[in-house]
Amino acid sequence: MTTSKKTGQSGAAETAVAPQEDWCAARPEEIPAPTAWPMVLALAVTIASWGVLTSWVFVVVGLALTVLSLYQWIEDMRS
Fold first, then answer.
1. Which domain holds residue 66?
2. What is the pLDDT of residue 29?
3. What is the C-alpha to C-alpha distance for residues 55 and 42, in angstroms, rounded to an integer?
4. Using CB atoms within 10 A as the burial measure, which of 22, 25, 37, 56 is most buried?
5. What is the band of 26 on the pLDDT scale with cuts at 50, 70, 90?
6. Are 54 and 47 spatial neighbours (Cβ–Cβ below 8 Å)?
7. CA-to-CA distance for 3 and 27, rounded, in angstroms?
């Protein structure tokens, strides 16, 4: 393994590793497109959690949104 020392502005030594011949490309080679479903999932969990403190209606809405957002997020990742 070939290494070289570099010093940054802070004076700390950073080690850089040179690529080896037997290394392969990083996976996945194609990055999935951005999606809003993780934000919807976070909102759904927040609504469901808030519903535990306030009303069962919010729990039901939050759980329904959780299932919907997980399903859609997985479908986006598959395509």
1. 31-79
2. 73
3. 19
4. 37
5. confident
6. no
7. 24
Residue with tokens 């490309």: 25
Total domain count for the chain? 1
* 47 Cβ contact list (under 8 Å, min separation 6): 58, 61, 62, 65
Position 38 in a domain: yes
Model pTM? 0.63
Please check whether residue 46 lies inside any domain of the structure.
yes
Q: Is residue 40 part of a domain?
A: yes
- Distance (Å, whole) CA 31 – CA 52: 37
pLDDT at 2: 55
SS3 readout for the chain: CCEEEEECCCCCEEEEECCCCCCCCCCCCCCCCCCCHHHHHHHHHHHHHHHHHCCHHHHHHHHHHHHHHHHHHHHHHHC
